[in-house]
Amino acid sequence: MQVSRRIVLHFPASLTGQPIVYRLARDYGLEFNIIKASVSPEEEGLMVLEVRGDEQGVEAGMKYLSEKGVMIEPFSQRVVLREERCIHCGLCVGLCPVGAFRMEPDTYYIRFEEERCLACGLCIKACPPRAMEVGL
Ligand code: SF4
Ligand code: SF4
User: Fold this and answer.
1) Which residue's CA is minimally distant from atom 4 of ligand 1?
2) pLDDT the model gives residue 136
């Protein structure tokens, strides 16, 4: 049976220079489409990927990624800021791998630029008052 999955891959710094995703096609016969990526050498990398192939191939490919040390999470379509909960602590600014938060220089308020967001979920876990959440 053919299946398709959207996933978020977290690469540790030690793996960001390696052709790991390419092997999904070569060794497991999977097709993949990179939806968004933030990968730079010597830093942690993030990639949102759509993977298609037969069910066994997809399972084997995911097992291969896990064994290589890549963390896999399901892709949340959208992450939103519940502004009424935000206390503008700034914690998310340094944490977001794609710079989707910025601090207004005059007010020190934190603004969320959703169009930059990879939906990796890091800020959801870290935000103290739970102002970031998966949107509908
Ligand atoms: S971590 Fe949460 S509360 Fe703090 S600025 Fe970011 S969204 Fe607002
Ligand atoms: S989910 Fe949060 S940390 Fe991840 S890219 Fe989007 S705004 Fe940045």
Assistant:
1) 89
2) 67
